[in-house]
Amino acid sequence: MCMPTSWRLMLLLAVAPAVQAQATTPAQLQRTYDAAAGTPAQPERGRLFFTQRHGGEWSCASCHGAMPTVAGRHVVTGKPLDPLAPAFNPQAFTDERRVEKWFRRNCKDVTGRECSAAEKADVLAWLQTLR
């Protein structure tokens, strides 16, 4: 069954803004997290958050490496992970939905809860300092 052209156009126009809305840059995400946190990010606090364990077995660095400028590897599955620092991976932090999905999953693995906006802001600020 073929969809009428006018319906396909309406569907395309309805979906296009949603697709565009998720495209972003690390700097845009940084501003969003800073605003949600109500305070500017602190890169050093982000580095500490990233490298320390939070009462569990893992830290962010367990999979991404203490200096996430090179590929990492998931400690359980062995799945290779692209560098996390935006300067070493142009695709990092460019899809807001994907970023939120992975922050949610990884924060729960590392901290046992979702990360706060301030924690996300701090980690992202530190990652953006890596050159």
Automatic annotation (TrEMBL):
GO MF term set: electron transfer activity; heme binding; metal ion binding
Pfam annotation, one family: DUF1924
Transmembrane portions of the chain: none
Keywords: Heme, Iron, Metal-binding, Signal
Record-annotated Cytochrome c domain positions: 41-131
SUPFAM superfamilies given in the database record: Cytochrome c
PROSITE patterns tied to this protein: CYTC
Top-rank lineage group of the source organism: Bacteria
Leader sequence segment: 1-21
InterPro entries: Cyt_c-like_dom, Cyt_c-like_dom_sf, DUF1924_SHP
Protein name per the record: Cytochrome C
